[in-house]
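Subject: for your reference before the review

Hello V.,

The reviewers asked for a structural picture of the protein, and I figured it would be easier to keep everything in one thread rather than splitting it across files. Below is the amino acid sequence we used in the manuscript, unchanged from the supplementary table.
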Amino acid sequence: MKYVTWAAMAITTLILLMGGVMKLMGNPMATASFTVLGLPAVFATFIGVCEIAGAVGIWLRKTSLLAAIGVALITLGAIYYHVMHTPLAEGIPAFILLLCSLLIISRKGTGIIG
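And here is what came back from the structure prediction:
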């Protein structure tokens, strides 16, 4: 089970880093959802920082549980956006990310560093 958890952590890290960096760079594709939801542009920056922090935090023993909970909450927002505003198929990565973060939560304290 340890390797399954690590695989979930790796998948989560890759998805979060890609999304977080794209939001911080102001990529229109990554920030369009915030405009659709009527949120200010600075919120995309905030979420990008949180995604990058979550990507790092899940690997640290002391923060892996809290980071995974934060990732799950952010992902629930992404799933809401996809259910309400896009074809459901576009929400598949968010759903996978939610499943991975729930696995990490269920294996609390799974970080391998620290």
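For the response letter, the relevant points are probably these. The longest helix spans residues 2-24. The CA atoms of residues 19 and 61 lie 23 Å apart.

Happy to draft the paragraph if you're swamped.

O.
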